[in-house]
Amino acid sequence: MAEITKNNEAGNIPRHIAIILDGNGRWAKKRGLPRNAGHLAGSETFRKIATYCKNIGVEYLTVYAFSTENWKRSEEEVGGIMKLLDKYLREAIRDMRKKGIRMKVFGDISRLSPELQKLIEETAEISKEIEGFQANICINYGGRAEIVRAAEQYANDVIMGKVEGDLTEEQFAKYMYSADIPDPDLLIRPGGEFRLSNFLLWQCAYSEFYYTDVLWPDFDEAELDKAIAVFNSRDRRFGGVKNK
Ligand code: FPP
After folding, report:
1. Beta carbon of 217 within 6 Å of any ligand 1 atom
2. The pTM is what?
3. 86: which residues sit within 8 A by CB, 6+ positions away?
4. In what order do the strands lie in the sheet with 186-189?
5. Among the atoms of ligand 1, which is closest to the Cα of residue 70?
6. Model confidence pLDDT, tens digit, residues 167-181
7. What Cα–Cα distance (Å) separates residue 206 from each residue in 123, 185, 186, 235, 239?
8. Ligand 1 atom closest to Cα of 45?
């Protein structure tokens, strides 16, 4: 179970924060801009929030950038998001050592362009040299698909004789993209919706949810502090009973 180690004015700092990036399209529409202008602004907000998370002592930040369902969007929009990811990954490869940021991609990357796949592999390689804060970007990710993939890999290991005995939750978790990291303590959804949208279904079993109407491109450090303060006001019992 995640343990909280650091604090700031907002209270104890969650070790792992997960965010569903939502509201980019509406942010752009309100300004009479194309949807991709919203995604550009959203990617800048991601940069800002990742830096802030690192500075206040969050250890892991996981964001939902592109779901398995997002391929249904127009070719222009999908192409725009892929271009932003390409740009972001290139910058990350250049800066991550200096900034001390590890980066992982969660999701089925085989459907992405060979160039993007190469950049993703490169960030994973560089991450091995770095210690500390880790940003996980979910691309072509779906929570159900992740669980099915884990079941397939487990079954394969059984067939190959690599594992034996009864399967425990702990062992199964090792087949998830999040294998080595604690579950999110706090899940934030900006953009005014109240859905999980197939995000981290396995990992969010005990996460605290925080929703806000603020659209993702407008989300800032003060909003994150607010979410952390609400998180600190919650009584986390993990199914147990609180000692009085
Ligand atoms: C949801 O808003 C956002 C997306 C589907 C794309 C998010 C992608 C980025 C911010 C770009 C790249 C990301 C990183 C991390 C570099 P929406 O379009 O569903 O908004 P709406 O509900 O207002 O239409």
Report:
1. no
2. 0.93
3. 115, 116, 119
4. 102-106, 134-141, 60-67, 16-20, 186-189, 208-211
5. 5
6. 999 999 999 999 989
7. 30, 7, 9, 12, 9
8. 10
